């Protein structure tokens, strides 16, 4: 299955159940009515893992997004950008919030009981996280931030920035047994998806 987000193509194995979360009718017609609701870009579920994937393609707009890579909104109020960022958060906060709200939405979808079957793939994923296999340690919970853009400098390479973001996202998701990865086109693992720019 090939899905597009932020001018990038993602190819997911057919063996996985994958949805573009914000295009699902449950998200648009029900969950999105919750004030300030948000969710990850993709959810993909298989026997070995469930992955929550957020995509940030900042290529060509690095200057306006540089503040977002500093954890805990550290640079939000001090940086000069071409748009208002007061209601936005740095990526570590945004990703953690999107994961939490996505899980809440999936629990909500599962609460519809037999009617969740009408939700199609999303209902199947909701059932998956509500069953015992989600709690078992052999089914990995993966949180993946795809960060495209040239954010590296002479003193701080992009890999260091990505590692710092990864640690900060993980610290905000300590309440969830998961693995966090911040990747780009040159560092991602093809087990979950393939990427084309």
Considering the chains and any ligands shown, give keywords for the structure:
197 residues, alpha/beta, 5-stranded mixed β-sheet, 3-stranded antiparallel β-sheet, 6 helices, 8 strands, globular
Report on this model:
This protein is an alpha/beta fold. The chain contains six helices and eight strands; from the N terminus they run βββαββααααβαββ. It has helices spanning 25-29, 62-65, 91-110, 121-130, 132-135, 158-172; strands at residues 2-5, 8-11, 17-20, 42-45, 49-57, 140-148, 179-183, 194-196. A five-stranded mixed sheet has the order 3-4-5-6-7. The longest helix is centred in the middle third of the chain and has 20 residues, at 91-110. The protein is globular. The chain starts with a strand and ends with a strand. 32% of the residues are buried.
Helical element count? Answer: 6
Strand order of the largest sheet: 3-4-5-6-7
Beta-strand residue percentage? 15-25%
Oligomer: single chain
How many β-strands, per DSSP?
A: 8
Judging from the principal axes of the Cα atoms, what is the shape?
Answer: globular
Radius of gyration, taken over Cα atoms and rounded to an integer in Å = 17 Å
Mean pLDDT level: 87
Residues in helices, as a percent range: 25-40%
